[in-house]
Every structure is written in structure tokens, then in C-alpha cells.
Amino acid sequence: MENAAGEEVGVEGDLGAERFSNQSDAESWVGEVFAELAAAGVDAVTLFELDRRVYGPMSLHP
Fold this sequence. Notes:
By secondary structure, the protein is α+β, with helices and mostly antiparallel strands. 34% of the residues lie in helices and 23% in strands. It has a two-stranded antiparallel sheet. The protein is built from two helices and two strands; from the N terminus they run H-H-E-E. A hairpin with a 2-residue loop joins strand 1 and strand 2.
């Protein structure tokens, strides 16, 4: 999770601790909570599989 400057944003609680078994679940989750992430200062997210970047950063703004 990154802010507008591209710096990593630490998010507390459930939003910062989520892990997913597949890409579809991760993408659905972002779609459900993007407003909460944005309110926590997150401007973009990146999807990783272990250490490999799948895609991103993906903006949370329209």
C-alpha cells in the first residue's frame, strides 16, 4: 500500500493484515474496502504473490 508519493503506508488492524489464497479474492477485497483504505491514507495498492509483483501499483482513485 502506497501514498501519493509512492511511499509505503502502514495500515493498522484487519486492513493491514489481510492475506489471500488467490488473486480473485484479493481483487474482490480491494473493491470492497477501497474507501476505507483511501481514508487511511492509501492511494495505491500492489498485488504480490509471495515476493513477486503480479501488478500495480493500482490507484484507488477514479
